[in-house]
Amino acid sequence: MVSTETPICNFNAPAINFSLKGVSGKTHSLASCAGENGLLIMFICNHCPYVKAIVKRIVRDTKALQALGLNAVAIMSNDPVEYEADSFENMQKIAKEMNFPFPYLIDETQEVAQAYGAVCTPDFFGYNADLALQYRGRLDASRKESASADVKRDLFDAMYQIATTGQGPIKQIPSMGCSIKWR
């Protein structure tokens, strides 16, 4: 496992369209996932200790963001042949166990992750209502272990600001996680 940090936010970069199969069997696109006030695109996987440490917080925060008109979608781009824990069947299992309130999609060709420039899991891309990038930072101070319960909610606060103003915070702390497992 290689630990990687995300690059700085490329403000106003447009969201890139995709068409990916979700764990429900339904195909999802950028348009079908977007909310009235924006969209959070998350590159996650099942086996990464960084994701495991925050997955309950991701569920909590994405549920709260829905009330603000912000939708979320999670994309798994790792090579499931080399990482069986990231297989489609295991994605379905995790999504059900964790009660994901967002679509969980498989990027079998890894083209979507490459188009977005995703580098690690988790990698968060926060878009406003115009689907212009406003956030590329961390969820919170968690690393391979969850941070304390009262830690500042960087992602939630940024997405709240995006939902209410259309603009993300200028200061953003990069997300850190396992590198995407490329074929």
Automatic annotation (TrEMBL):
GO terms for molecular function: antioxidant activity; oxidoreductase activity. It holds the Pfam family AhpC-TSA. CDD domains: PRX_like1. It comes from the Bacteria. InterPro entries: AhpC/TSA, PRX-like1, Thioredoxin-like_sf, Thioredoxin_domain. Residues 9-144 form the Thioredoxin domain. This is Alkyl hydroperoxide reductase and/or thiol-specific antioxidant family (AhpC/TSA) protein.
